[in-house]
Structures are given as structure tokens and as C-alpha cells.
Amino acid sequence: MDDMAYLRKEKEIVEMDYPLSTVWAAIQKAIPDIQWTIEETKEAEHKVKAKTKAGFMSYSSLLSIEAVAVAENVTRVTVSAETPTTTLTAIADFGKTRERIDLFLAALVKQLTPRKKNMSKKKTD
Q1: Contacts for 114 with CB less than 8 Å, ≥ 6 apart
Q2: For residues 32 and 27, what is the distance between their CA atoms, to the nearest angstrom?
Q3: pLDDT digits over 45-89, tens only?
Q4: How many alpha carbons fall within 13 Å on the CB side of residue 20?
Q5: How far apart are CA 6 and CA 97, in angstroms?
Q6: CATH code of the region 6-112
Q7: CA–CA distance from 94 to each of 9, 34, 86 (Å)?
């Protein structure tokens, strides 16, 4: 990494109307679903660190994700991301950290959204 590197940091906090156990299970499915790597998991604390893929002219990000029960059916999810950036990659990489947080949250919502079964109408005569 370049001597002029620094960390670009972003953070997002959302509350979801699901119990902690449901959100925690969805978090662990969402990360591999978007082809990221789980670096560390702390089951008892409901914390996970995930590493994104690097892109052209951008480094990978490290996301720290924590789920906390706020009420019986409400869970707060905190997502913090850090992306190393250099003076050379700063312009090409601008906004990637935020995009990666948004991508994770979209994958999480996808895991929590009930899937409709593929139903076809049968013809009755």
C-alpha cells in the first residue's frame, strides 16, 4: 500500500422489525450471498467482520456488523466500513465504501423478505 494511504470510514445504523435471532441468521447468509468473506464471527455478541472483494482501482473494505435487540421484535443493525485509499485511488474509489454498506443492507433485506413460491395456475375444465 502507498505511504499516502488513509482509511475512508462510513457508518450506517438501521432498525428492523424482526427478532434478533432472525436478523442474525440473515446477516450470516447475506454476506456469502454477495460473495464477501466472513473474517471473524462473535456469536455471543452478534458481531461479524466481513471483507469485500477488491475492485479495479479500489481496495477491499472491511465491514464490522453488529446486531442488538432493541425490543422483542426490533433489532438494531450497525454497519461500519473502512476502506484503505491512496492518493492514486481516491477519485476512482470515491463512494465505494458507502456503496458496499448499501449493498450489504440490500442483501440483508433480501434475506429477510419472504420469498413467494413459484405458483402456476392449473387449468380446470
Answers
A1: none
A2: 9
A3: 999 999 998 776 667 889 999 999 999 999 999 999 987 776 665
A4: 14
A5: 13
A6: 3.30.530.20
A7: 11, 21, 11
Taking the whole predicted model, whether its pTM rises above 0.85 is answered as no
- The pLDDT assigned to 121 comes to 45
Please tell me the distance from the alpha carbon of residue 102 to that of residue 99, in angstroms, as a whole number. 5
Would you state the pLDDT for residue 37?
Answer: 94
**Residue 121 or 116, more confident:** 116
Q: How far apart are CA 102 and CA 109, in angstroms?
A: 11
Q: Grid coordinates representing 73?
A: 421484535
Q: Which amino acid is at 48?
A: V
Half-sphere exposure of 27 (CA within 13 A, CB side): 30
